[in-house]
Prior knowledge:
single chain; mainly alpha
Amino acid sequence: MKKMDEMEMNINLSAIKWSWGFTAIALFAWSINDYLQKQQASVASFLFGMQIIVYFLVSQISKAKVDDANGRKYMLSAAICILFLLAFGSLLYFFNL
């Protein structure tokens, strides 16, 4: 198996970006449509959310591996934000607000 040259890598990266963008837009539109029809979250919204989370985590972990200080700072701020949202959501759920 031969190694890809720079042009092939650029073409593949561009194709991956376009396909990821299409998938993200399609899942977002599907989840909005399902929410408007059924008034509840669907599998599409779960997949869309997980896709965004996985992308964010992989990019930030990759930055942290190369000793990027901003990568660690963003991971810490994201963890704090997630904990805040979970706590706030729990309060709303338990107090039926």
